[in-house]
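Fig. S4 source data, part A: sequence.
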Amino acid sequence: MTHFGKWMGAAAVGGLVVAGSLAGAAGPAVATTAATPVTVVEKLTGPDAPNNTWGRWDIKGTDLGIMWDDGNGKVLMAFGDTFGNAWTGPGGGSGHNGNWRSNVLVRSSDRDLSDGMLFESAPQAPMGIAKELIPSRKINGDEMTTIPTAGIAVGKRQYMGFMSVKQWGEPGYWDTNYAGIAYSDDDGENWTVSDTRWDNTPAGDHPFQMQAYARKGGDIYVFGTQNGRNGPASVARVPERKLLDKSAYRYWDGHRWSKDEADAVPIVEAPVSELSVQYDAYSKRFLLMTLSGEDIVLRTAKNPQGPWSAPQTVASSADYPGLYGGYFHPWSEAGEIYFAMSQWSPYNVYLMRMQVDPDGRIVNPNLVSNPSFERADAIGDGTGGTWACTPNCGIDTAPASSFSGDHNAFVRYNTGWRNIWQDVTVQPNTSYRLTGWVRTSVNSDAGFFGARTTEGNVVSEAHFVSLGPWTKLTVDFESGPLSTVQVFAGVWTNSGDIWLQVDDVAVIRQ
């Protein structure tokens, strides 16, 4: 999806009207002041992404990342509106040479998600770029684009739910023509659009215009929302072998499963959008992730029709402005949950991680306050959730310079030790993992990232020299007798004008 333009409203770039975007949510935010418990594992798409999606398949700007198990040892991941070499960002859209595709797909067999998700292949056009799978007319007011919203495998056949977008409106609003299903019998290489579809109503309030799939037993539960980001969620069920047979669908009417589509009632109150649902064997619950207002939230239920729990904040827009589209990785297990999150700036997709306990409650959050430097532009003294630094230093606010979102921290000088730090509360005698993204000037030759006491004694650290692209650094440490540690990133600047930037810092209990 081009979520902020689409999701943010249609945009005209270089004379070409392109998709809007899913970002730019409307409706009340859920606990925007709450700390974001999740951590960034990896940037999956675009410039500086280890998968090099730009160089390999001309996926420079894209969003969403709907994932499902293909039943043959791989995860398929479908993206929304995708732009190539001419894309400059931030946000979706590009000029006439932007190589706009309404949807693309990649494949992965990587089971160790702790260090990211490796993409191994993509369905390609003859020139080698990732090809559009479900075509669209790309005519505003007719059919602007076709956006994947769900995927599932039944036997050797792959199914992908999508919405046909008629036009993008104001942020958080768009009109759909219908929701449809495409299928593939060659592991996602080629797709056929079936005749199975849910036409939108003239009022634009059909409850299944954006769908999500969750399997339990031999049934597929089809969760749906209206077009836009301001309606409730409903649910239907269908035997997995009859996914294309609309007569086999049964809709939850508040008491029972009804044959009549018009009987469907809300199971989660508005606003709900960009649903991802899966049954989690660890907590023995359905997990439902959605954009609600300006945040991504999680609800849980023992049955697909509910009752659903109160929302828990997964990722706050205060830390990741312009976030949307939280989609579960199907191989999450033992309470360790991985999902794809999009950001309008820089209009790319990130792999995120969180943990839940056996009751489905989010646990073991990131202990760093303001981890992405988005909540405040001012530098403090390093206590009370603030960051401190040695001059010349501060918060960069130029979107092009950040790893995620709009901000990152920096230090820069030509002599002496320059660093940025924060005091973090920890439990004594506990193992922790510190992560963060760092990059430096080319002449950097003595950089350090780690944890130390408040008196400055190093507990554990990583040493680095020149880091060109954003690079993830990981430091494991034991807290010993400490109840507070200082996490820091710094560089000796005795070899000329040297700078360091840091973003998305996390401390998680091991």
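Fig. S4 source data, part B ends here. The radius of gyration is 23 Å.
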